[in-house]
Design brief:
The chain is of the alpha+beta class. The chain is 25% helix and 25% strand. It has six helices and seven strands. Strands 2-1-5-6-7-4-3 form a seven-stranded antiparallel β-sheet. The chain is globular, with a radius of gyration of 20 Å. 19% of the residues are buried.
């Protein structure tokens, strides 16, 4: 497409294999990010994570960590990470600087007790729906800017109710059938999530992911950078 020279210049000038000071400050104040994962077959998933400023913890210039809360039980992101540890994080600041930060790296699932033993001072959230079940620790491989030119400038709206329904199983408070999928599910036919053909096996697989994180040894193998900077480049 004729963009090689422009791409090479971008990588040479903008892509780091760590988080510099400004990147760490930016990440530490974010209240949300988008997470991309894929399973061992390359089937992709993209999801959204949010919390109070600092919920995405900057452990050091090469490591991020965030808590996984109680969700819909599908464990799509955690399941993908178990099969394929490569993840992409996109932090987007719509409110202040109108800029974005990409972080690509390798993730591992860490039990809550192990994370707190290793990193003292992590706060316990008293809200049941915001109590970490496990953590995802990301070894940074690439970090680079997402340019501002197409990022809208937004402002926060005042809350419409007394607070968030963290951890609720109330169908309506979770959004109900906003997109009308339930009304069309009968036309789709019976949904059997491959390769798990029964709800019991599906649930057991989700529980296995959490149990494996709890049994995992605290010592992590050293992560080697496998991104742009290790590729073979001809002079």
């Amino acid at each position: 497409m004729g963009t090689t020279e422009r791409a090479d210049r971008f990588y040479a000038d903008q892509v780091l294999d760590r988080l510099n000071t400004r990147m760490r400050e930016f990440a530490a104040r974010q209240e949300m990010f988008f997470l991309a994962t894929a399973d061992r077959h390359g089937e992709c998933d993209n999801t959204f994570r949010a919390g109070p400023p600092g919920f995405l913890h900057v452990l050091d210039e090469r490591t991020l960590a965030y808590p996984e809360y109680r969700g819909n039980g599908v464990q799509a992101s955690l399941g993908n990470i178990e099969e394929n540890p490569h993840v992409g994080i996109l932090m987007m600041d719509f409110l202040q600087d109108r800029i974005g930060l990409h972080v690509n790296g390798t993730a591992r699932i860490v039990a809550d007790e192990e994370m707190r033993r290793t990193h003292f001072g992590l706060a316990y959230d008293p809200v049941p729906g915001r109590r970490a079940q496990v953590w995802v620790e990301v070894a940074v491989e690439e970090a680079y800017i997402h340019c501002a030119k197409h990022i809208p400038h937004l402002r926060k709206a005042p809350p419409r109710d007394a607070g968030r329904a963290w951890g609720t199983d109330d169908f309506k408070r979770k959004g109900g059938d906003f997109f009308g999928a339930a009304a069309e599910a009968a036309e789709r036919g019976t949904f059997l999530p491959p390769p798990r053909a029964t709800p019991a096996i599906w649930r057991a697989e989700a529980e296995r992911v959490l149990e494996r994180a709890e049994r995992r040894a605290p010592a992590a193998k050293e992560q080697t950078f496998s991104g742009w900077f290790n590729r073979s480049v001809s002079a």
